[in-house]
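Subject: Protein record for review, amino acid sequence with backbone structure tokens
Concerning: The relation between a protein's sequence and the shape of its backbone.
How to read it: Take the token row as a discrete description of the fold.
Enclosed: The protein record, placed directly beneath this head.
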Amino acid sequence: MDLRHLRYFIAVAEEENIGRAAARLHISQPPLTRQIQQLEEELGVKLFNRTPKGMELTQAGELFLEEARNIRSVVEQATERTQRAGQGKLGRLDIAIFGSGILGTIPRLLLAFRNDYPEVKIVLHTMTKAEQIEALRQRRITVGFNRMLAPLPDLATELVATEPLLLAVNENHPLAQEESVPFRALADHPMVLFPTGARPNFVDKVMRLCEEAGFVPNVSQEVGDAVTGVALVAGGFGICLVPESVTALTLPGVVFRPLHDSPANSRIDLSCLYRSDDQSPILAAFLDCVRSFRKAGTFDESVDITNGTVWDAGI
């Protein structure tokens, strides 16, 4: 039995007439009659009573019509879901995150993607840059997010956004009284840097900016992430340069100030990283969303993507 037999049977059962069913199916009557006969022979039961008025279902035929419709529905759903998967509209997307991007930019981007592709399950994993690269190569994730990504032959990057750098400072600090802080003024105060870990990273960026401004920073602490860095600022351990997305943190006692007279390249990138040979339709759809996001430039800050999203500390 094949799906064609079911389609022919349903048409005859619904039309109750071979001629009308043949016209509906765009075939002639003799081959349709043969197909119904073959189906009855295969099942070993009589599905129709032939009457002067047309085709009347037997009791077995009525039962088979219900089952045939169920099978047709399942096949149609499977076809639609397969097509949606092929278009990148259905499936699972494993994404690795780390650092300050998750405080603003990444949630807005993921919300935009989820709105466009609600049937794609997003699974988030917290990983450092080195862990993201390893997981991509092992095909445990599809996309990673990080900053200052060095070129790698088997991996590709897509820029998501660039952000200005701001100064995080304790509200009781003298620099907190300034509406805008001269970059050179940072030389006179202890500085908290982040993150520790694989290079190049944001620490290298800050050190290079300070060098271009003509001074070596007085590093009081070097910590693993932006949250810890800003927490130390709240505790009075020093000042801290941060990407703009970190302003989403509202720790008591910390204010953020723009910088002026800073080096020309005092912005920081956020990019996504993926396998260059990955032909996944879901990845292609996600990258299209990234490009649209970057082109738009800004999204509503007040978003929550946790509903329906799986969060995982690692793989």
About this structure: The chain has a mean pLDDT of 88. The chain is about 40% helix and 25% strand.
